[in-house]
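Folds abound. A case:
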Amino acid sequence: MYEFEKYRAPSQANVVDLVRTHPFALIVSNGGGAEGAPTATHTPVIIERMPTDGGFVGAELLGHIARKNPQWEHLTTGDTVLLVFSGPHGYVSPTTYDDDPNVPTWDYAAVHLTARVTVWEGPAEGMHVVTRTVEELEKLESTPWDMTTSLPTFERIVGGIVAFGFDVIEQRTVFKLSQDKPREVRDKVVAAARERGCPHGAVADLVDRVGGSR
């Protein structure tokens, strides 16, 4: 992903927050597709460990896919994959601007992490990744679910997944949130998004909260 200098994340805290709150990621790997095209799988990817400096380079993330999904068969421990995390996004109409002529655009936030993958086929590693995933995702719920009584069920079906560890070697971000516009224009973008509704996540809140923090 190309990083536009003026659209970099305002802070690393914003990057970590996007990954934590939008964990349904794409795992993209080389080959496996038609005529050698890359393969991508949508799956939850969660943070296991962060470096002390708060950056993602050096972090460890966890994920899993169905064993029936052939993507994992094309992966060997040490291969590199791309993890794509998409945040809120939405169309911006020129009707929100004060000048004319103008052009429409799209506001969005995204984080791409390149990582070396470790493939875990065993049930012990699979259980660790599945239970850690549940723990992290339940933190997003107002009333977290206690998985204790369901662990025997997890153990019966964990053979149906293949788990991964991801050691991050590169981070790229784009937080394009109308920050190149004056405050009064950003306010109009926010108001228009809220009036229309944000079908792709709360982009209005992100523009309001993050778009002007430079």
